[in-house]
Hints:
By secondary structure, this protein is α/β, with parallel strands linked by helices. It has two domains: about 10-20 and about 30-45, no CATH class; about 95-230 and about 235-300, Rossmann fold, CATH 3.40.50. It has helices at about 10-15, 20-25, 35-40, 50-60, 65-70, 95-105, 125-135, 145-160, 160-165, 200-215, 240-245, 260-265, 265-270, and strands spanning about 85, 90, 115-120, 140-145, 170, 190, 215-220, 280-285, 295-300. The strands form two sheets. Strands 5-4-3-6-7-9-8 form a seven-stranded mixed β-sheet, sandwiched between helices. The protein has a two-stranded antiparallel ribbon with strand order 1-2. About 30% of the residues are buried.
Amino acid sequence: MDHIFQASRQWERIQDRWITEDAAGDLTNLKSDTRNYKLSLWDPTTNGIRYLKTLTYHLGMLSSAEELERIRRTPNREIGSPITVRCQGETLCLDYLQATFEVGFIESAIDLNGARVMEIGAGYGRTCHMIMSNHDISGYCIVDLPNTLELSRAYLREALDEDRYKLIDFVPVDSLGSGAVRSERFDLCINIHSMTEMSPDTVSAYLDLIDETCSAFYVKNPVGKYIDPSLDGYLQGQEAVQMALENGPLRQLLDIHDSEAVQGAVPAFIAGYRPGEDWDCVGDSRALPWSYLWQALYKKAARP
């Protein structure tokens, strides 16, 4: 029997279009253009969802029993049609994996049972959802811009039962100037990836508010700014890039994919997000899975 050794139609097409005779002799950009993408099957321009699911899968498989149990106790995560994988018997998405890592870090130093929590910039409410599903919170205050506040209000109304939902106060940012929440006291304030998008003056105002009203502060934000058009081709335009560079308390540029550069920026991160002189940083670490996001937990020292 004669054996036939020949390219498939699929690979005939690849040879004709991408790995041509001329292209095979030019090593310039070999590992970051379509030739290698066809050889290695990891084209970043078309594999976004594949990579998201791969990342989610790896995080899910590495998650501890405690981290997964925290997710299991958080119902209604399917609202909004998340992109999911299934690991260790549980349906997981990247948002709630991050939430269980965040809440686990907080729990390591803060007793959340009976706590009053303020979150500045809650997104659609994933962290609030997980905390209230895992702890008997006495009250939760979300401070946000009007449209985002309506989004979290709608999401949490669907995600939580009525008794838990009634414990949430939704406070618009523009009411803070008239003294909203200043007379209240919170056991914990949370800010996740939003102070980096605020003007420096606004960040200072929030840190003053935290110093005045809170006993502990959890923050998760980038350690600095970066310029890397290869990540998204500046899809939103140069103006959006410039606006991002102007915001946040930490505006130094660094290579966010250099572990030593990121580690070198940590002291400035810890100092930049400290709410006041009476506050001690009781823990900090890289915030998985991102290379350049850091998390820190501060406690206000008891005054004599």
